[in-house]
Amino acid sequence: MNMSLEECIKACLECMEACNGCYDACLKEEDVKMLAECIRSLRECADICAFSAKSMQSDSPYVKQICQACAEICQACGDVCKKHEHHEHCKQCAESCYKCAEVCRKMAV
Amino acid sequence: MNMSLEECIKACLECMEACNGCYDACLKEEDVKMLAECIRSLRECADICAFSAKSMQSDSPYVKQICQACAEICQACGDVCKKHEHHEHCKQCAESCYKCAEVCRKMAV
Amino acid sequence: MNMSLEECIKACLECMEACNGCYDACLKEEDVKMLAECIRSLRECADICAFSAKSMQSDSPYVKQICQACAEICQACGDVCKKHEHHEHCKQCAESCYKCAEVCRKMAV
Amino acid sequence: MNMSLEECIKACLECMEACNGCYDACLKEEDVKMLAECIRSLRECADICAFSAKSMQSDSPYVKQICQACAEICQACGDVCKKHEHHEHCKQCAESCYKCAEVCRKMAV
């Protein structure tokens, strides 16, 4: 497995973990109503990251298409999380999302 | 494809749709804080139903194990939705969950 | 739910079923070695169709990005299946893939 | 996050990676016909491992049910891979499956 592929799988798995953890944390917050948009975004982002990791691990013929979608969703999810960065979990999750977006963009070229 | 298999796939896809719709509706309610447990349950139930459908459609060697988990999760998710049946979407979703649980239990034997 | 959304969910669920069924059938063929590329493509296509359906059912903020990826993968999977259309299941699956690709393209705009 | 949970997530993600890698490798082997059962098992095992990891990461109410299914599927998939252990990737994958089965069994209690 080449380095960039390994790096991209790693970024996707880390972003998946960050998003699922942040999803859980958001659902435990008092202001969950305010976080509805974030919760919605996190589920989708976690799931596309898992999908991307799977695709790369199994040498799917559609890695580029999936990493393209993953890059866009991670970027958008990072923006959503950033709006709620007074919650430490959202702030940290935004960083994972942006990092994953960046690596997936390269994979999608 | 035999009748019970077709029926079980149909029940899983209907429960998946009901759970995803109820998930969306819960996130749009005013009392989303009250519904956090329900939201959490619905995501998981929708996803295991999709997983079960996929497994049956592809003649997976693990249909029984997956339908067993699906039956238990649908039953539990139905109970969670039932607690919120003053929301029409939760009430209807509980019915889909219980129906799917019943059919999956038979498949798991 | 508006008509085009309902239609797109339906097309995705039908393509998911066709791909999973064709995946199973390919693995039962004698010339499975010849079908390796097809098997690989079908898994991915079935899974992105399930993902798309879920996203639309739950009013995901990322329906466009996911339907875009789904349209491209379905189109490509249709082309792969078409190469093996001497197998009736591949021929029929190609039709489901092309139909789903067409509907998802409209959703992705 | 407590130690056993972290350990179980790690085992699931490692087993997911091993299964997806072995799936890819099997589809590239000459004797892919002989490996059809293994390919079928690996897809399912990789996917339930991803599902389990997601469930634990998001503190799902259904971790036990999912880890129970995951343990059974990993155990069975390990047995399938073991039959093909003349392929190094199958041999190594069996080890990841058995390890994951063991950890998931504890989580399911």
TrEMBL record, chains A, B, C, D:
Where does the secretion signal sit in this chain?
none
Question: Which Gene3D superfamilies does this one have?
Answer: 1.20.1270.360
Which Pfam families does the record match to this protein? Csp
Under InterPro entries, the record lists: Csp_YhjQ, YHJQ-like
Query: What name does UniProt use for this protein?
Result: Ferredoxin
The protein's organism comes out as: Ureibacillus manganicus DSM 26584
